[in-house]
TrEMBL record, chain A:
This is 2-oxoisovalerate dehydrogenase subunit alpha. SUPFAM superfamilies: Thiamin diphosphate-binding fold (THDP-binding). The keyword NAD does not apply. One of its GO terms (molecular function) is branched-chain 2-oxo acid dehydrogenase activity.
UniProtKB/TrEMBL annotation, chain B:
SMART domains: Transket_pyr (SM00861). Keywords: Oxidoreductase. One of its GO terms (molecular function) is branched-chain 2-oxo acid dehydrogenase activity. This is 3-methyl-2-oxobutanoate dehydrogenase (2-methylpropanoyl-transferring).
């Protein structure tokens, strides 16, 4: 035995602040907007490791779009204004559904507050036929692809207008036509499925690519690692997104990540090019997503994107974040609010104003409320028209086997 | 007609499926260039190309998870888990994802895939190469679970499974790959050659999932078995001289309850045989169904013969395996009641 050897010990990752202490992001580096280089999409992974450690940012504090990613983006004013409307729609939708849950019109809800840019912006890189494999916090993909929010509400209420027939928890939407794969309630499972879907596309000689989504906490699941192995092994046309919103319910992202490196850097262990992006910067997310989509479409293989953001609200309606983090922590988040940043950029460009913004917010909210009225006219969780309980026995198999027919009879249908 | 081993019959089915349906894609550990550790895919990559039959990283979760995505895209993945004992990392994908995809999306997304796995013991494989995992699948609604016992059935059931619109777990009793093993491990190995149920027609034929087969007609006792235990049961019955009816379930879910109950109502006695451990095994489900449907016809309690509730031991394999002597003893006990 070596008398000089210290006793062995472990390191336990912890957030910088807990309830009762002041928020502290002092060691969270925020690189300057426009500073990150934009390599050609066919650059070998090992020659662009810096992109996994820095951060692609376009919008600066003054609302200016800066740097090579902005120059390559070429997103016109109309498209940017549309992006702003998508984010405002998602925010208004969230607010109404949160209220509906408090009014017991549904059992459960999960909002996107602070993370609206990522899903709303990402969808711009996809084409009809492409497929997202989302988590529960990417409803902006649906909104940006034109899915009716009234139908989303019907899903949340589990009423007779729910295409999923009330079988899934609220917010676990599905729409093949809108490139939105059915959300699982299990974390991480969709990541490898996205890779398999894109393999299927490539094996069929098709043109569609897939986008996988996962949260910072769920990157610890084996599904994440299997997905990276398969994506790397077969150079699969897939975009592997990680949304790092700092919190996995009450667990700080450092517990899944370790205290060094970034989530994006995990791509390099598999030879997968990786980008780390300011997830509260609508333009940066579009720029990164398009870069990755081009790689996929040109058979250059997968790209990992870490979207850095902050979950400004609770994990779900069942969560009270004031129990584990300072209640004013969100206000100190260094990357700001995604809606305000795009709004300020558009105002700085002279194509938008505070008045028009307020007017747009009111119009969008009115539209959401109108859709809500129509959805509630069909029903809510406990009232109105719901799918018949007899449907409970449908779709277990394509054809109902004898034992299920017997059970349906026993249940009285 | 040519006789085939079960390996050859499975390979023939896969070859046909690859030839006739461009959506069919085979993958798994060592299934590509090498053709699988049990040789079920030998030559298929060479014949059909690497994109139709390929090797994967050692990740059962990855294999099944990728197959789910591929099936959702519209292909027909037929994947191999090298041993059923290795399937546990894929279990979440099978149970929470594949089995429920149709249900949770009201039919918008489906999972027509086949997961093939060699199952069962008798090869000195120890506790990680011998397990019979069928009850872990029959308990999961949304899956179909198939266990063939002959080369003829293996081909017809596998082709039906590949064409099925829902996920199918296809358990291949590895001790039957090369011959109709009846449990007499101390006797010379019997090959499939010359066995009537090893005569495999050329070309496509389907055996519908959910239909049992009566392997021996009888009047005094009904023996329910599947996979390797069909052959063990036939040997055991022959040794007792009891006029027993031996039913090969072939598909555990959906279950052919009608064939079972018709027989038990006639014989009034029932012995259930499986190699998997006893407690909460599929035999418990069978016993419950038999007593519920045939209670007033039963002359004796239903008996189960199964693997002991221990892990599959290595050196004590033949003391663990529910061989002909144990099955015969159970048959005699049931007849004496």
């Amino acid at each position: 035995m070596d008398p000089a050897a210290p006793p062995l010990r472990l390191t336990f990752g912890a957030p910088h602040a807990r309830p009762g202490t002041a928020p502290d992001f002092s060691d969270f580096p925020v690189p300057e907007a426009g500073a990150m280089r934009r390599p050609p999409v066919d650059t070998p992974a090992e020659e662009m490791r810096d992109l996994a450690f820095g951060m692609i940012r376009i919008l600066d504090d003054a609302g200016e779009a800066r740097g090579p990613w902005a120059e390559a983006l070429a997103l016109d004013d109309a498209a940017q204004l549309e992006g702003l409307r998508h984010m405002l729609t998602l925010r208004a939708y969230d607010a109404r559904m949160l209220l509906a849950q408090r009014q017991q019109k549904t059992s459960f809800y999960m909002q996107h507050l602070g993370e609206e840019a990522i899903s709303c912006a990402f969808q711009r890189a996809l084409r009809p036929g492409d497929m997202n494999f989302p988590t529960y916090r990417q409803a902006g993909l649906l909104i940006a692809s034109g899915y009716p929010i009234g139908t989303m509400m019907c899903q949340v209420y589990g009423n007779d207008g729910d295409p999923g027939r009330g079988r899934q928890l609220p917010v676990l939407y599905s729409s093949k036509a809108h490139g939105f794969f059915s959300i699982s309630g299990n974390l991480g499972t969709q990541y490898i499925q996205a890779v398999g879907w894109a393999m299927g596309s490539a094996l069929s000689g098709a043109e569609a690519i897939a986008a996988a989504w996962i949260g910072d906490g769920s990157t610890a699941e084996s599904d994440f690692h299997a997905a990276l192995v398969f994506a790397s092994s077969y150079r699969v046309p897939v975009i592997l997104n990680i949304v790092n919103n700092q919190w996995a319910i009450s667990t700080y992202q450092e517990v899944a990540r370790g205290s060094v490196g970034t989530f994006a850097a995990r791509g390099h262990g598999f030879g997968i090019p990786a980008l780390r992006v300011d997830g509260n910067d609508y333009l940066a997310v579009v720029a990164a997503a398009r870069w990755a989509a081009e790689r996929a479409r040109r058979n250059l293989g997968p790209t990992l994107i870490e979207h850095v953001t902050y979950r400004a609200a609770g994990h779900s309606t069942s969560d009270d974040p004031s129990a584990y983090r300072p209640s004013d922590e969100g206000a100190s988040w260094p990357l700001g609010d995604p809606v305000a940043r795009l709004r300020d950029h558009l105002i700085a460009r002279g194509v938008w104003s505070a008045e028009r913004h307020a007017q747009a917010e009111a119009e969008i909210l009115a539209g959401v409320i109108e859709a809500q009225k129509q959805a509630e006219a069909i029903g809510t969780l406990h009232q109105g028209r719901r799918p018949s309980p007899a449907e409970m026995f449908d779709d277990v198999y394509a054809e109902m086997p004898p034992h299920l027919r017997r059970q349906r009879q026993q249940a009285g249908f | 007609m040519a006789t085939m081993t079960m390996i050859e019959a499975i390979r023939d089915a896969l070859d046909l499926a690859l030839t006739e349906d461009s959506r069919v894609t085979l993958f798994g550990e060592d299934v590509g260039y090498f053709g699988g550790v049990f040789r079920c895919t030998a030559g298929l990559q060479q014949k059909h190309g690497v994109a139709r039959c390929f090797d994967t990283p050692i990740s059962e979760l990855g294999i099944v998870g990728a197959a789910i995505g591929m099936a959702a895209f519209g292909r027909r993945p037929v994947v191999e888990i090298q041993f059923a004992d290795y399937m546990y990392p894929a279990y979440d994908q099978i149970v929470s994802e594949a089995a429920r995809m149709r249900y949770r999306t009201a039919g918008e997304f489906t999972c027509p895939l086949v997961v093939r796995m060699p199952t069962g013991g008798g090869i000195f494989g120890g506790q990680t190469h011998s397990q019979s995992t069928e009850a872990l699948f029959t308990h999961v609604t949304g899956l179909k679970t198939v266990v063939p016992s002959t080369p003829y059935d293996a081909k017809g059931l596998l082709l039906a499974a590949i064409d099925d619109p829902d996920p199918v777990i296809f358990l291949e009793p590895k001790r039957l790959y090369n011959g109709p093993f009846d449990g007499h491990h101390d006797r010379p190995v019997t090959p499939w050659r010359g066995h009537p149920l090893a005569e495999v027609p050329k070309g496509r034929y389907h055996l519908p999932l959910g239909q049992a087969a009566i392997r021996r007609a009888g009047t005094q006792l009904t023996v329910l078995a599947y996979g390797t235990m069909v052959h063990v049961a036939l040997a055991a019955v022959a040794e007792t001289g009891i006029d027993a009816e031996v039913i090969d379930l072939r598909t555990l879910l959906p279950l052919d309850l009608e064939t079972i109950t018709t027989s038990v109502r006639r014989t009034g006695r029932c012995v259930i045989v499986h190699e998997a451990t006893l407690t909460s095994g599929f035999g418990a489900e069978l016993a419950a169904q038999v007593q519920a449907e045939c209670f007033w016809h039963l002359e004796a309690p239903v008996e189960r013969v199964a693997g002991w509730d221990t892990p599959y031991p290595h050196t004590a394999e033949w003391d663990y395996f529910p061989g002909p002597a144990r099955v015969a003893a159970a048959c005699r006990r049931v007849m004496e009641t």
